[in-house]
Amino acid sequence: MKVSGTGGLTPSAGPRAARGGDGSGFRLGGTAVAGSATPATSVSGPAGVVGVQALIALQDVETATERRRRSVRRAGRLLDELDRIKVALLGDELSGAQLDALSRAVREQRAATDDPKLEGVLDEIETRAAVELAKLEMARAAR
């Protein structure tokens, strides 16, 4: 079979004649005799596109390591947002966009990990972010 573009499959031209050499063809350990090779069987057409949904489902399956990495990245984003807010408060330049960014980061769903110590640290980070967000929103509303 020969693939030509995106149009599909087309049958190839068939077996080719031997190139150069002594004309005896391919041999293993001197056991094959010229012209005694068995003819190649044709390749059947491609199987139907079965299991595409299974492949997509496999891509959605997360391992424990992937969940852990994603949770750690999320915690890092929360800490980064808290640092930005700290710097903005020290410079008296806190904006509503920074509060919105922290609010989005807090509301983002966290993937559960199998590590209880990591879960505890992540809980503490989320609690600190939620407390800071609540304090800042109260201060903003009081103005």
Describe this structure in words.
The chain is mainly α and 143 residues long. Helix content is 52%, strand content 3%. It has helices at 52-60, 64-90, 96-107, 116-142; strands at 2-3, 9-10. Strand 1 and strand 2 (9-10) form a beta hairpin. Helix 2 packs antiparallel against helix 3 (96-107) and helix 3 (96-107) runs antiparallel to helix 4 (116-142). The model has no long low-confidence stretch (mean pLDDT 76).
Which structural traits does this protein have?
143 residues, mainly alpha, 4 helices, 2 strands
Summarize the structure.
With 143 residues, this protein is mainly alpha-helical.
- Major sheet attributes: 2 strands, antiparallel
Shape category: elongated
Give the terminus-to-terminus CA distance: 75 Å
Order of helices and strands: EEHHHH
Number of strands: 2
Quote the average pLDDT: 76
Q: Enumerate the spans where pLDDT stays under 50 for 5 or more consecutive residues.
A: none
Beta-strand content estimate: under 5%
State the helix count: 4
Write the layout of secondary structure elements.
Elements: E1 2-3, E2 9-10, H1 52-60, H2 64-90, H3 96-107, H4 116-142
Antiparallel strand pairs: 1-2
Helix pairs in contact: 2-3, 2-4, 3-4
